[in-house]
Design brief:
Blueprint (H helix, E strand, L loop, with lengths): L1 E3 L3 E7 L2 E9 L3 H14 L5 E8 L2 E5 L9 H10 L5 E8 L6 H19 L2 E3 L14
Helix pairs in contact: 2-3
Length: 138
């Protein structure tokens, strides 16, 4: 399974709007939600904090006020296309005054996540179950 080595952040500007993508390695939905909550507090003045995560115990995404399907879904699709697991993506948008339209938003959020993926170190991880079995000799 592929994931990222460590947290990474990238930034792009599209038509005066600033998109900051933060990627984090995470293993559970609970861990993802804690990171999302922390970034919501850190970027409380942002127009939107859109999220997507794929973890061992589930996946999810949120458009956070953007038109339905224009932020979270393209973000999780970018993670899936790169076959990434155990990762959380948060894209913070500061609106620049120029509307991008639905297609423009989809492209902007996808590009933001893809740029962060390119900036990250992708690693291969294998998970094993270890068992200890004790029995009599006979």
């Amino acid at each position: 399974m592929k994931t990222i080595e460590k947290a990474v952040q990238s930034e792009i500007n599209i038509k005066k709007s600033q998109f900051i993508c933060s990627l984090f390695p995470t293993k559970t939905k609970k861990e993802s939600k804690e990171i999302i909550q922390k970034l919501n507090q850190q970027y409380h003045d942002a127009t939107h904090n859109c999220t997507a995560y794929i973890t061992n115990d589930g996946e999810g995404y949120d458009d956070n006020g953007e038109p339905s399907g224009t932020a979270g879904k393209p973000m999780i699709n970018a993670l899936r296309r790169n076959d990434l697991h155990n990762v959380t993506a948060v894209v913070t948008r500061y609106f620049g005054g120029i509307k991008l339209g639905a297609g423009g938003l989809v492209r902007a959020y996808s590009k933001s996540v893809l740029e962060a993926i390119e900036a990250s170190e992708i690693i291969e991880v294998e998970y094993y179950d270890v068992y200890n079995i004790t029995f009599n000799y006979s």
